[in-house]
Amino acid sequence: MPTVPNTDQAAQPAETIQPLPDFADRLVRWQRHDGRHDLPWQVRDPYRVWLSEIMLQQTQVVTVLDYFARFTARFPTVQALAAAPEDEVLAAWSGLGYYRRARHLHRCAQIVVEAHGGAFPQTAESLATLPGIGPSTAAAIAAFCFDERAAILDGNVQRVLCRSHGIDDPVPSTATTRKLWSLARRLLPEAPDIAAYTQGLMDLGATLCKPRRPTCATCPFVEDCRARRSGDPQRLPVRQPTRKTRPERSTVMLWLRNPSGGLNWLEKRPQQGVWPGLWSLPQFDATEQALQFAARFGRVIGHQELATFRHAFTHFELTILPLRVDLQVQPGVSEPQGQWFDLGEATQLGLPAPVRSLLMRPMSATDAPPPSVLRG
């Protein structure tokens, strides 16, 4: 049986939901003819499948393609990833956001090497014990690489199942999640179709059964999809009401420079909170505090407030005022949490997306805001 969350173990089967006839067979045939077949992680290598599954969490395929290519070039094996310093891993991840994924990725690679001899476990149950691998990710790896008959239930799959089977219970909720897991297990085909079936669920949700304006005409379930037959397929899944606006915060981001040496001051952030463990420009509540901090390092030559910009996190939005300060550094002055880096060194570190964007802008353009970046 497939691995499912602990909350589903006591769930009753969704007996009131009648599965569409030949659901798995129709989906497999559609995937083999019309599904995606050229993604670089569509291989039997569990390292690449695992890496792609982690990167694709809350991130679009078009974004992941470039990161995946650069990441696997830099860390071609799980052994290479495990042996790399954390800063190097975070630097390669920089810009993808949700940095705990990268930290879990690194730790998972180390456990695979240290405890499993460099070979990924071959069952969803065992894979789900590794850091950062949830039940759906574990099932995807097991299905794609080891042909295990295991059910997945990511956001795309929830949408496909809710629409095709007319499930109008609110998502997400514990009761609905249990019902969907139960249905997902009941729909599983037998081997050797499990990999094509699993890929088909992902492909259908990503290419046809999209959140808005689904392309129903070419769907393999066009004739009996219960949401389509209701006349409004986009209505499902029903979303629980959420707060529409996120809290707003603001910060002064100090870009402290030593022009004579071409150096920039960066500080390593704590392991908890925003951008945990990344190198960043120091932040302050007010310009005066930032200038007082800068004065510790030597004589301030000049300072300039650059254009503010907004950066969106999952739970709040941050308005950033970059304050560029040039100074003549007094030798021997430092702070324990930070150090000076030239631009080349800085770009090799794990940096938050807005910090990297700010540092990389041409000097003549630093009075303009960097491009807005979501969830960096």
Mean pLDDT value: 89
Q: Provide the low-confidence segments as ranges.
A: 1-13, 368-376
Please identify the structural class as seen in this structure.
Answer: alpha+beta
Give the CA-based shape: elongated
- CATH homology group of the largest domain: Hypothetical protein, domain 2
Number of domains: 2
Q: Care to count the β-strands?
A: 8
Tally of alpha and pi helices: 15
Name given to the CATH architecture of the largest domain? Orthogonal Bundle
- Our measurement of the CA-to-CA distance between the termini, rounded to an integer number of angstroms, reads 37 Å
What does this structure look like?
The protein has 376 residues and is α+β, with helices and mostly antiparallel strands. It has 2 domains: 6-235, Hypothetical protein, domain 2 (Endonuclease III, domain 1, Orthogonal Bundle); 248-365, Nucleoside Triphosphate Pyrophosphohydrolase, CATH 3.90.79. Helix content is 39%, strand content 14%. The protein has 15 helices and 8 strands. It has helices at 23-34, 46-55, 61-74, 78-83, 86-93, 100-116, 124-127, 135-146, 155-164, 174-186, 194-208, 226-229, 287-295, 343-346, 353-360, and strands at 248-258, 263-268, 279-280, 283-284, 298-305, 309-312, 317-329, 338-342. Strands 1, 2, 3, 4, 5, 6, 7 and 8 form an 8-stranded mixed sheet that branches. Helix 2 (46-55) crosses helix 3 (61-74) and helix 2 (46-55) packs antiparallel against helix 8. The model is unreliable at 1-13 and 368-376 (pLDDT under 50).
